[in-house]
Amino acid sequence: MRKRKPKAKVVSGNYMDKIPYISDGHEWRELDDGNVEVDMPHKGFYAKIAQKFFHKPAVSHIKLDEYGSVVWKSIDGERTIYDIVGKMNEAFPEEENDMLKRVITFISTLEMNKFVVLK
């Protein structure tokens, strides 16, 4: 049986107008180096079993790199994805050519893992 490659997300003009919001339940903090650390609580039946029997943590702390940190701090409930791409181009002008793809991939990953909601 052959594995299928996941289809690439098609970006429409409407996607660039969407406004990302940080989902409830995700606390975060800015570290001394300026990067962001996001808390990811593990809830549910299987998480409770893993915590009890395998000593897994109730909360994971995810440290973002400098790119992810700038995107995360730009998510304020007012900026569109287009605005965030512009902010990233200001912060990293030498990588402007790849920034659109990078931001869309990162925000799509955040959305897929329920860290953000797009409205």
Automatic annotation (TrEMBL):
This is Coenzyme PQQ synthesis protein D (PqqD). It comes from the Bacteria. It holds the Pfam family PqqD. It comes from Butyribacter intestini.
